[in-house]
Amino acid sequence: MSADSPQPADRPLYQVTDLTRVFGRDGRVRALDGVSLQVRAGQRLGIVGESGSGKSTLIRLMAALDRPTSGSVTFEGQQISGLREPRLGFLRAAVQLVFQDPRSSLNPRMTVGSIVTEPLRSRHLRGALEPVDAGVRLREVLQAVDLPADAASRYPHEFSGGQRQRIAIARALAPDPRVLIADEPVSALDVSVRAQVLNLLADLVAARGLTLIFVSHDLSVVRHLCDSVVVLRAGRIEEQGPSEQVFAQPSADYTRALIAAIPRLRIG
Ligand SMILES: Nc1ncnc2c1ncn2[C@@H]1O[C@H](COP(=O)(O)OP(=O)(O)O)[C@@H](O)[C@H]1O
Ligand SMILES: [Mg+2]
Q1: Helix (H) or strand (E) segment spanning residue 257
Q2: Domains and CATH numbers, the chain
Q3: What band does 25 get if pLDDT is binned at 50, 70 and 90?
């Protein structure tokens, strides 16, 4: 390490550098094209952009669920792009995800209790986790997401969409992560329960001091939840900055169009 390397205290949690991911024959689809950004501990970063702009591709790379075509992602100074699963335990323990649709992200044949405690049993995570009593943690996280303790012995189909997303959130909290990445976590839910789930997320992030990376095409939600925002368009960063600034004085026409489209997007 050279003398002018940043000290851990001011080193960003995530450093994304010139990240590119192409798909298809001849790499025709440039899902992500030279994206660089940083995430600090405690930051609540919104990633917005129209459908197909590369939001999910970006967070999949940040969660090491996919490999970049070029560029890199470091977490706490450690390169994660290209690491094999057995070496990713530190990341899996620290960074947990909530996906859009709890119907497809929760195994219908597992009880809620085994779904929620599954990360604790993961061979790769185990070495990276503080020892914890799974039963105690299960009760704690079910309570944190306002589900009854007896939910543990039931199955996902016995719950409503909003409750299922609470189960997914409980599972994400089980390893006591420091970072929560949520990819359109309320977009598949009934409009009537979206606010409840968003408020729950906001409360959990505040109470646990989590770093939040929140993906949404709905800018009104990001404005409410996030202190900073990255606007993606066709795999590139169109604009980024503090939420207040980006919403009050968007510098890009594209951002202005997204903001103007809020009412339409909310019912869409
Ligand atoms: N596994 C894949 N194979 C081929 N193309 C993909 C794949 N994943 C994403 N893409 C393409 O990359 C682009 C960005 O997709 P995505 O990151 O899912 O966007 P968003 O989440 O913003 O809607 C889209 O054109 C999409 O079709
Ligand atoms: Mg997506």
Answers
A1: helix 253-260
A2: 10-107+178-267 (3.40.50.300)
A3: confident
